[in-house]
Write a structure and sequence with these properties.
Blueprint (H helix, E strand, L loop, with lengths): L1 E6 L12 E9 L9 E3 L5 H6 L5 E3 L2 E14 L3 E8 L3 H11 L5 E13 L5 E14 L9 E5 L4 H33 L11 H20 L1
Parallel strand pairs: 3-8, 4-8
Antiparallel strand pairs: 1-7, 2-6, 2-9, 4-5, 5-6, 7-8
Helix pairs in contact: 3-4
Length: about 220
């Protein structure tokens, strides 16, 4: 199976029934060759879509990680345009969050070549392919397509709650890292490390005193 990726841009974020939707071009026709040296001819997906129109949306081409059900998938004058509803699995939720924060930037197709020609300049023209799957991925191969919409039914208070929880976790991690490093430096300076109840301020004060004593010893 071959794959091709196209970058997208998030242009919408709005309520969509009882779930999330993502939509965009999984492939575009003509134009400049992609990084694989290929271009896709108009009509390349028609036979495949007629036989199997319900092409699932995967995460990073992993057949064990389906994250979306197809709502529509058709060819237009520009390329292969699809719309999928994301499912709320752990991976689907991760994809949703990454889309919200612009941390994934590509749709990619997995396909089998059925018919192709080569131009004189060596570019392969895909005339017919069997479309196996479409994936959300992170590395693009072509600069001609975009995801045109991403919708969510998450109310504002839930989005704020998720953001607050994420900030709280980050603060705890920073605090824990600071306390660990301070304790390690205290040990290196041969100072009895603080007990588990010591506050950050207490640890900072002990560390400051220890550094001062160490400096006096070096200058004595």
């Amino acid at each position: 199976m071959e794959t091709k990726a196209l970058p997208f841009q998030l242009s919408e974020l709005k309520a969509a029934g009882d779930g999330w939707e993502v939509a965009g071009y999984a492939s575009t026709f003509g134009g400049d060759p992609d990084s694989y040296g290929d271009i896709v001819a108009k009509g390349a997906f028609l036979t495949s879509l007629a036989k199997r129109p319900n092409v699932r949306l995967l995460w990073q081409h992993d057949m064990g990680e389906p994250i979306g059900k197809v709502i529509s998938l058709t060819e237009d004058d520009k390329g292969l345009f699809g719309r999928w509803s994301l499912v709320p699995t752990d991976t689907g939720k991760k994809a949703h969050q990454l889309l919200q924060h612009d941390l994934v930037d590509s749709l990619s197709i997995g396909f089998m070549t059925e018919d192709a020609d080569y131009r004189e300049d060596g570019v392969r023209v895909l005339k017919a392919v069997e479309l196996v799957e479409v994936s959300i991925v992170t590395i693009p191969a072509n600069t001609n397509a975009m995801i045109t919409s991403f919708k969510t039914d998450q109310p504002l208070h839930m989005l704020l709650k998720q953001a607050t929880e994420g900030i709280t976790v980050a603060v705890r991690q920073v605090k824990a890292t600071h306390e660990r490093r301070a304790a390690e430096e205290l040990r290196a300076l041969r100072v009895v490390p603080p007990d588990a109840e010591a506050t950050v301020a207490e640890m900072a004060l002990r560390l400051q005193l220890a550094r001062a004593k160490a400096g006096l010893r070096r200058t004595a």
